[in-house]
């Protein structure tokens, strides 16, 4: 898989001392609430539309006095030396009201500030964004071997407390890098947040039932009953957003066979949208991967029924997944 195969674009870059694992931190201008909120708002705006590519800086910071020989610091410094100057990963970030101590744990938060904060200014990296989806870049390349010297200077030639937006030129330069998905423990932060949003939203009952059947067909193995409920609610919310977007664009055709209900409903009061189902193409990945609107498609009832009946006859996970996708690639 390559970066260009992703459903969403890479919209920004982040310069870090170490590859991120389950969160990305940003340091506000001071420790006040307004400063944290301003920083959070900027990063959310910069990252909401896609992925962030992570660059490991050439330099590694010096810890506070007394930690120069700390085993954890020395291990981090060694990790840095192996990735310095490279593009290492892509991440999707989740805006969250959770404070860094809640994400890290109070003990780890206090240690982080002990090692790196300046005196009483204990707010380093306190604007925290959980990583909810992540891809490792295979054989991480030196960034200056991928980007032009002008792009390197533009993106990383100056300090930044937030992200560094990418343009189409930079996206083209990184498009062929090979990536592979990697697990992230914070996927459930995003799922829980959006399940709560679904509870407060008015969802179409028929759509909720339809998506629930798609999800249940995936068995949701290994999840608790509480997690299954959250997954169903969140999936229904995403499906409704997807259906609304498609209706607004007017692209109401079956993504599998091309059936166009508008050609039949024009002289009637029947809604073309009502003759198409919203189908979850990757129900087996719910609760495992952070699914998005890109995991849904519109199909006619015949194609929808056929997909699930065919998938039910297959035991190989790869074949089952392919059976649940449209016969032709959707352009939407």
Euclidean distance between termini CA atoms: 20 Å
Which segments are poorly predicted (pLDDT under 50) over 5 or more consecutive residues?
none
Question: What portion of residues belong to β-strands?
Answer: 5-15%
State the helicity in percent bands.
40-55%
SSE order, one letter for each helix or strand: EEHEHEHHEHHEHEHHHHEEHH
Count of DSSP-assigned helices:
13
From the alpha-carbon coordinates, what is the Rg to the nearest angstrom?
A: 23 Å
Number of strands: 9
The averaged pLDDT comes out at 87
What does it look like?
The chain is built from 13 helices and nine strands. It has helices spanning 33-47, 71-83, 100-104, 106-116, 143-146, 149-156, 168-174, 187-199, 205-217, 225-249, 262-265, 301-312, 317-323, and strands at residues 10-16, 23-26, 51-56, 87-93, 127-137, 164-165, 179-182, 277-280, 296-299. The protein folds into two domains: 3-182, no CATH class; 187-323, no CATH class. The longest helix has 25 residues, at 225-249. The strands form two sheets. Strands 1, 2, 3, 4, 5, 6 and 7 form a seven-stranded mixed β-sheet that branches. The mean pLDDT is 87. It is α+β, with helices and mostly antiparallel strands and 332 residues long.
């Amino acid at each position: 898989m390559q970066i260009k195969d992703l459903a969403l674009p890479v919209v920004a870059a982040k310069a870090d001392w170490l590859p991120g694992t389950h969160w990305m931190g940003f340091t506000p201008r001071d420790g006040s609430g307004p400063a944290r909120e301003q920083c959070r708002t900027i990063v959310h705006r910069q990252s909401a539309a896609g992925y962030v590519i992570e660059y490991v800086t050439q330099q590694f910071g010096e810890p506070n006095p007394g930690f120069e020989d700390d085993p954890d610091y020395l291990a981090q410094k060694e990790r840095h030396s192996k990735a310095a100057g490279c593009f290492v990963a892509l991440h999707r970030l989740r805006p969250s009201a959770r404070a860094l101590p809640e994400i890290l744990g109070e003990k780890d938060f206090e240690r982080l500030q002990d090692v790196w904060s300046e005196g009483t200014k204990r707010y380093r990296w306190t604007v925290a964004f959980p990583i909810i989806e992540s891809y490792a870049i295979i054989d991480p390349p030196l960034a200056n071997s991928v980007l032009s010297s002008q792009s390197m200077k533009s993106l990383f030639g100056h300090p930044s407390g937030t992200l560094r937006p990418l343009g189409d030129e930079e996206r083209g330069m990184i498009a062929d890098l090979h990536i592979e998905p990697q697990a992230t423990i914070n996927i459930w932060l995003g799922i829980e947040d959006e399940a709560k949003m679904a509870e407060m939203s008015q969802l179409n009952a028929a759509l909720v039932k339809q998506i629930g059947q798609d999800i249940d067909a995936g068995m949701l193995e290994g999840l608790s009953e509480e997690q299954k409920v959250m997954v169903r609610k969140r999936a229904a919310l995403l499906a409704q957003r997807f259906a609304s977007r498609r209706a607004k664009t007017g692209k109401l055709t079956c993504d599998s066979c091309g059936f166009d209900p508008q050609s039949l409903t024009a002289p009637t009061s029947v809604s073309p949208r009502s003759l198409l189902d919203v189908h979850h193409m990757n129900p087996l990945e719910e609760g495992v991967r952070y699914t998005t609107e890109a995991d849904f498609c519109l199909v006619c009832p015949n194609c929808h029924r056929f997909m699930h009946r065919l998938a039910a006859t297959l035991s190989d996970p790869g074949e089952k997944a392919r059976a649940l996708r449209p016969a032709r690639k959707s352009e939407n």
